Amino acid sequence: MSDDLPARAAALDAADPLAAYRDRFITPPASDLLSYLDGNSLGRPLEATASLMDEFIRDQWGGRLIRGWDEGWLDWPLTLGDRLGAVALGAAAGQTVIADSTTVLIYKLAGAAVTARPGRRKIVLDTDNFPTDRYVLEGIAAARGLELVWISTDPETGIHASQVASVIDEDTALVLFSHVAYRSGWIADVAEINRIAHSAGALAMWDLCHSAGSVPISLDSWGVDLAVGCTYKYLNGGPGAPAFAYLRRDLQDTVRQPIQGWMGHRASFEMGHGYEPAPGIRALLSGTPSILAMVPLHANLDMLAEAGIEAVRAKSLLLTGYVLDLADEWLAPLGVEVAGPRSASERGGHVTLRRDGFKEFLSPLWDSGVIPDYRRPDGLRIGPAPLSTSFTEVCQGLSVLRDLIEKNR
Q: Residue 3 — pLDDT band, cuts 50, 70, 90?
């Protein structure tokens, strides 16, 4: 059966309705890059992004100079936020904003959430969430004298609704989890966990970093209160691209973020005394928007709207399913284990493989033009981005990994 795997990759590529999108990405020479399997960490740039950046620098920045602020730049955090909400988040207009980094936005929204639940002393989180989520909540709890309620989660799965139900009570102000677990790829039951949180009067916040642009999201219909995510993974925004925040419309008059800057003021250019928050989602802004860093999002949101998130998800499941087949056929006999969910309904956009000593394989993999992602203590994350990755590319990458393991047994 293993001899059929490369042929199956070729057949899947031939039948792929999204295959043409691969040509829209900037591709290094084959001698430098054989297989890029780290789209879940940093997405590849589009050719259109390079053109847009050049046009923006020469014509908008260089040509319009300071006048650009009055010709639309100031509205980009909101207009791009609305576009992202419609294309990838299942969020109606006026609830999503592009701003800051993921860490800063988690601080803003989590801080605002606990303030909006005065008298409640507990924040519920899990032990295997992404470090920045945990660190920010630790800082908020320490500064405000709050209690962190830790749920121990299995690194090979993720948070379960039953675990949340077992610890939440009327003293809980906030729960914060990841929609797709960064380590295992586990998809949480967002709607059910929200229901449990709301039944206790708590607010529910979600980290969407490993799902936005890869897994369909329905923030409005799931009843999400607050959410944060990055744009440099499946949204191809570039290294350090600004993050996004979602705040449900009916909470916007009462949930007030703590970093009161001039861009979140009711009338930024009045330069008046005293802070008065702007109405709606604009109040989540603080400082001057990172306009240059938002330019790539225009190109990717155009592409994602054209392709459709459901089609992206369908290919993602085929890609990760193919990774599982390769792992079972080629790598399991060499001591490699799948450290994550196998079911399509529970699997996000990446697959984690585990084997003692995987850290030592990173350099030779990179030297061979194969780029996966490594997570301590012994995991390789295989994250094929659906719009930029072929099945043959996945096959070639895992073939190199197989050969390296065999060589070093």
A: low
Instruction: Reply yes or no on whether 374 is catalytic.
Output: no
**Phi–psi pair at 227, nearest 5 degrees:** -155, 155
Choose among 87, 183, 221: nearest CA to 381.
183
Residue 205's Cα: distance from chain center in Å? 14
Q: Is 88 exposed, middle or buried (0-12, 13-18, 19+ CB in 10 A)?
A: buried
Determine the longest span between alpha carbons in the chain, in angstroms. 73
129-178: pLDDT as tens digits: 999 999 999 999 999 999 999 999 999 999 999 999 999 999 999 999 99
- Per the annotation, the verdict on 25 as an active-site residue is no
DSSP strand pairing (244-247 vs 226-229): antiparallel
DSSP 187: B
Mean pLDDT taken over the chain: 96
Out of 347, 381, 391, 402, the active site residue is 381
Tokens of 221: 């219909």
Q: How far is CA 287 from CA 60, 81, 132, 283, in A?
A: 21, 16, 21, 11
H or E element at residue 351? strand 351-354
- 21, 177, 182, 232: the catalytic one is 232
Give residue 290's identity as a one-letter amino acid code. S
Q: What is the pLDDT of residue 32?
A: 85
Phi, psi of 329 (to 5 degrees): -80, -45
Catalytic residue among 24, 83, 108, 233: 233
CA-closest candidate to residue 211, choices 40, 407, 1, 400: 40
Alpha-carbon 236 to chain mean position: 11
Catalytic residue among 38, 133, 207, 225: 207
User: Which among 75, 130, 249, 328 is annotated as catalytic?
Assistant: 130
pTM, full prediction: 0.97
Mention every residue, 6+ apart, whose C-beta is less than 8 A from residue 165: 196
How many angstroms separate the CA atoms of 122 and 147, rounded?
Answer: 5
pLDDT one-digit tens code per residue, 340-369: 999 999 999 999 999 998 989 999 999 999
Token pair belonging to 23: 């040509």
H/E run at residue 23? none
Q: Active-site residue 100, yes or no? A: no
SS3 53: helix
DSSP assignments along 266-281, one per residue: TTGGG--SS--BPSGG
DSSP letter, residue 172:
E
For residue 376, indicate whether it is catalytic: no
**Which amino acid makes up residue 326?**
L
